[in-house]
Fold this sequence. Notes:
The complex is a heterodimer.
Chain A: H1 4-9, H2 17-27, H3 33-47, H4 53-70, H5 75-93, H6 106-119, H7 121-139, E1 148-152, H8 156-167, E2 174-178, H9 185-199, E3 204-207, H10 212-215, E4 221-225, E5 228-229, E6 235-238, H11 241-251, E7 255-258, H12 291-301, H13 308-314, E8 325-328, E9 335-338, E10 341-343, H14 345-356
Parallel strand pairs in A: 1-2, 1-4, 2-3, 4-7, 7-9
Antiparallel strand pairs in A: 5-6, 6-8, 9-10
Helix pairs in contact in A: 2-3, 3-4, 3-5, 3-7, 4-5, 7-8, 8-9
Chain B: H1 12-21, H2 24-36, H3 43-59, H4 66-83, H5 88-120, H6 128-131, H7 159-164, H8 183-186, H9 215-232, H10 240-263, H11 266-269, E1 275-279, H12 283-295, E2 299-303, H13 310-319, E3 343-347, H14 352-356, E4 361-365, E5 368-369, E6 375-378, H15 381-390, E7 395-398, H16 412-415, H17 430-435, E8 443-446, E9 453-456, E10 459-461, H18 466-473
Helix pairs in contact in B: 1-3, 2-3, 2-4, 3-4, 3-5, 3-10, 4-5, 5-10, 10-12
Amino acid sequence: xxxxxxxxxxxxxxxxxxxxxxxxxxSDPDLTMPVAxxxxxxxxxxxxxxxxxxxxxxxxxxxxxxxxxxxxxPISLSAGTxxxxxxxxxxxxxxxxxxxxxxxxxxxDFRAIRNHLLSSGKLFVERAKASxxxxxxxxxxFIRDGATVLTNGGSRxxxxxxxxxxxxxxxxxxxxxxxxxSTSSDSREGHQTVADLRAHNVPVATIPDSAVAYSxxxxxxxxxxxxxxxxxxxxxxxxGTYQMGLLAKSKGKPFYVVAESHKFVRLYPLSQFxxxxxxxxxxxxxxxxxxxxxxxxxxxxxxxxxxxxxEARSKCSGKNVDDAVDFTPPDLISGIITExxxxxxxxxxxxxxxxxx
Amino acid sequence: xxxGTAIATPGLSSFLKSLKTTPVEPSVAYLISLLKRRxxxxxxxxxxxxxxxxxxxxxxxxxxxxxxxxxxxxxVGRRLTSAQPRExxxxxxxxxxxxxxxxxxxxxxxxxxxxxxxIGHNSQPHNDSLSRPTLSSTISTFSPLKHATAEPLDASxxxxxxMSDSGELPKRPGLLTSHTSYVPSSSAxxxxxxxxxFSHPDTPSTSNTPTGHQSPDNKGMLTSLNLERLADxxxxxxxxxxxxxxxxxxxxxxxxxxxxxxxxxALDHIxxxxxxxxxxxxTGVQKFLLTAARKRKFTVVHVETFPHDHTGTHSVxxxxxxxxxxxxxxxxxxxxxxxxxxxVVMIPDSHVFAIMSQVNKVILATHTVLANGGLVxxxxxxxIAAAAKAHQTPVVVVSGVYKLSPVYPFDIDELIEYGDPGxxxxxxxxxxxxxxxxxxxxxxYVPADLVDLYITNLGGHAPSYLYRIVADHYRTEDxxx
Lengths: 357, 481
């Protein structure tokens, strides 16, 4: 029966979740992947005519799977879809939690929840952005007058935080920005942040990955963004974050992660190679030619020919190093700054357990 | 720094005595001056004084508007904390009391609206006691810790917060009218902060300032009291004041008993023939060691804590009396460790590293415990902790929950207080002072990773778990006083 109903009344084939997701993501540069995924799922819900809880969950699961399969690195995205799924289960199973003043029957409940979701899709986005601003507003207190902050990547939250700190007239600080020498969206964001900070009269030094250890002596604190915060309190972030964490730890510098709580994802990686994605960073080969990586890189190489390290990197055998991520274990992290406060890494699992069990 | 005779010099005892006769405002001013002059110092004394004062403040509060009561407590709290920002405990107590008021008010709000909604439409058939979130255990819900710093953009931009801040006063509707729209939200089972993105009205953590150990009985008493009162005049204003005062008295009990409760854990941590290293003249640590001494024989290596606490340390070792604590007569009543048959070795601070290789366990007293698991303790603590780390010796910190602060140490230097350099270089050596700078920092910041275990009156906790205890004890809306 469960099998029969969705096919009977689902306009699933006509709705393309992947393109919806991409469109949403492209439409707003400020949007993060989890939120875009939630947005896409809401839209999927709107395009369907499901009327029972089981159907809804099934529909969500199918769309989620399609969505995950379509992206090379679905970790961040799955944080959003998981959250949405848990939310649906939690609300649909507990009708009274809707907050309606009248006692509703189960079907009314379902409709009400659905309507709520459909009508407030934009709200989620706004709220996600608001939480970024909120993080920025108290995260900026971490930056003390005269501090030098080391950061990397193109995290928008970190950008917002630094910008907020720069706007405040009482804090004078310097930023060392680790820029990846490529044209990935990540590094574009980074360049944008650097330009913004300089416009705010904040002295910014940009360095390549290889100069992190060299610069660390001048650094007071490290602030990084994250693609996902995993269950043990570690983070999944742009390749190079792990080494920054290790170096910061060895130099005794505080290492803060800035992430919205919707990036919490239920993964428990123990090492770099436990991530549920296949990154071909390590590519052992006996052949000397760099044809493999060459053809991978040609399209990306064009705009940045003037940047020296790029030439070196393109000779590496690993593929897609620019989009790759690594896992920073929790013992390297001093604190995770979320919109609900500064958490210790061990608090993450508690937050996750609360929605899953 | 130590006041000579307790009765003559202003201090905790004189404050407590005067509190009985003086009206509130002069009392507040008196405490502020005592704090400013450092005539009341040490976490415990500050906590006792603040609690006593707040009990008075609440007791003399006129009117029944709980919003005004909160504002009043806040205002007093702000004055006290700004008088001596480094005595973080003062702020802690104020926040605890504020949380108490909110809790009492929310309980009634819940109960009353439940009552009305029962009458209106039998949507939620439940008995009052079940719907009251305070009854749940300490570990009921978790509201993540916020900063001790201002957050400019606030609840208004963040809607899930708006709901969670139902205790936020400006937004709270009057107490008495029935808020049917509010009730389901506050009694909703769905209280997850990760779901904050979705706008369902959920309230994270409505709860639990567990006023210590005894909370089961006391809470039970409190609730039955509530029920009676509600039965009596379910339509009239309830007495916030009386309940808050009950709560503050519970808090006082907690302060009184926290040392004993901590000491109850001693046998789990101190074993026969161990060598324990400790420092300062902390009553809590002494009681802890004494409790263990009843059953076990061990050796205590006591670090002198020169220059600011060595007199106290000496007198504790010799007589069991701490001159700094002379205000509290009942606190003096323990016997010295050696009377309990414990071998005590006193060493100067400089010997810590040398002797650490023989030590089995380090027990530290603390001034304040911070939300990230770090602590502020008498200077020398960090050196001891670092030496212990180098020798892989476990470091146990003994602290009452009242010392646990929601403050996040953004800037460690701000937390360190500098004392009288005269105790380092006596004034007779005045010429010496002309040639060199003499500094006497009173406190050390010990980072969380140097500590292995915290023992509070609630039991033992890993440093990484402290955020949770903070979340259980302080309301997020109170963190910025």
